[in-house]
Every structure is written in structure tokens, then in C-alpha cells.
Design a protein that fits this description.
CATH class: Alpha Beta
Helix content: 25-40%
Order of helices and strands: EHEEHEHHEHE
CATH superfamily: Transposase IS200-like
Low-confidence stretches: 166-172
Strand order of the largest sheet: 5-2-3-1-4-6
CATH architecture: 2-Layer Sandwich
Largest sheet: 6 strands, antiparallel
Mean pLDDT: 88
Radius of gyration: 15 Å
Number of helices: 5
Shape: globular
């Protein structure tokens, strides 16, 4: 497990038309996301941050103790670091107010997708996470995942050879 402040890419400013695979872990890896009310309490504010900062949520999957997101910038001025900060700040504030518990760890994992990385296979990888974790047999059975840009069927039938995120990544 890493400790301290994880580094950002020094040669990249996180602004512009990019796609990011993000992972946010819950505080102390507590299992906050086991029911719809808690997932919805976080999701509504993450969607709000996306709208405010010019990002669409291509895929999301709330696992019991972490969240996977695939986000895509909609404008040249979209700033991923600002989106991350606001998404965690908004959702964490409202989650604490509603449930009296701290939601997020301070930092999270991010991977910037390259131009050659197809979007839907990455989204499919995210949506299949509950199957790999043996929470469900089929991604369609998992109630805490989805997309604001595609149907579940579109994502799950995506063609591409995607074996998962690169082992080397960066923390935010």
C-alpha cells in the first residue's frame, strides 16, 4: 500500500479533451456502497461535478469499498483535477451530512487513456468488476453500475482486447 501524497504526472496538466479511468477508495476501506440510498447519495453529486466541470460519466461502478469511473472531457477547458476535487468534495460533504460518516480516502488512482485506447472496452472492464469480484454472475445483475452516455448493452458488447488498466499508474 502506498503512503504519503501520490504524484501527478509532471508533464501533463489534466486539462483538455481527455479520458480518465479513476478509482476512489472509501475512508478506511469501509463498505459504504451496499445499498441504493448510499450509492445514490454519492452518485448524484459526482454527476453534478461532471456537469459543472464539463465531463460525462462513460462508466461507473460502485464496489462495496471503492468506486471506478471512466470520465470523458467535453471541452478544451475541462480540468480533471478540478473534477476529481469537486466530485469527492460534493459527494463526501453530502454523504457525511446524511449518514454521519466520512466517505473518501484523501487520494485516488487515475489513468489517462491514450488516443489508441478505445473507450467502450475500458467501460466494459469497469462494468465487469462485480463479476471478477464474485458479487454477481453477470454484469447486468449488479445494481450499482452504469453509464450516462451508453446503454449497458452497448458497453458490454464492445469489441476490443482490453486486459485492464496498466500496472503503472498515477495517484491523485
Amino acid at each position: 500500500m502506498r503512503t504519503g501524497r501520490p504524484p501527478h504526472l509532471k508533464s501533463f496538466d489534466y486539462v483538455g479533451l481527455h479520458r480518465y479511468f479513476l478509482t476512489f477508495c472509501t475512508h478506511d476501506r469501509q463498505k459504504h456502497f451496499l445499498d441504493r440510498s448510499r450509492v445514490d447519495a454519492a452518485l448524484v453529486h459526482i454527476l453534478r461535478a461532471g456537469k459543472d466541470e464539463g465531463f460525462v460519466i462513460v462508466a461507473y461502478c460502485f464496489m462495496p469499498d471503492h468506486l471506478h469511473l471512466l470520465v470523458e472531457a467535453c471541452s478544451e477547458s475541462s480540468d480533471c483535477l478540478r473534477f476529481i476535487k469537486r466530485a469527492k468534495q460534493f459527494s463526501g460533504f453530502h454523504y457525511f451530512r446524511e449518514f454521519g460518516q466520512r466517505l473518501w480516502q484523501r487520494y485516488g488512482f487515475e489513468r489517462t487513456l491514450r488516443e489508441e485506447d478505445a473507450t467502450l472496452p475500458v467501460a466494459r472492464y469497469i462494468l465487469e468488476n462485480p463479476v471478477r469480484a464474485k458479487l454477481v454472475q453477470n454484469p447486468e445483475e449488479y445494481p450499482f453500475s452504469g453509464s450516462t452516455t451508453h446503454t449497458l448493452s452497448e458497453v458490454l458488447t464492445a469489441i476490443g482486447d482490453f486486459t485492464g488498466p496498466a500496472k503503472a499508474g498515477h495517484y491523485v
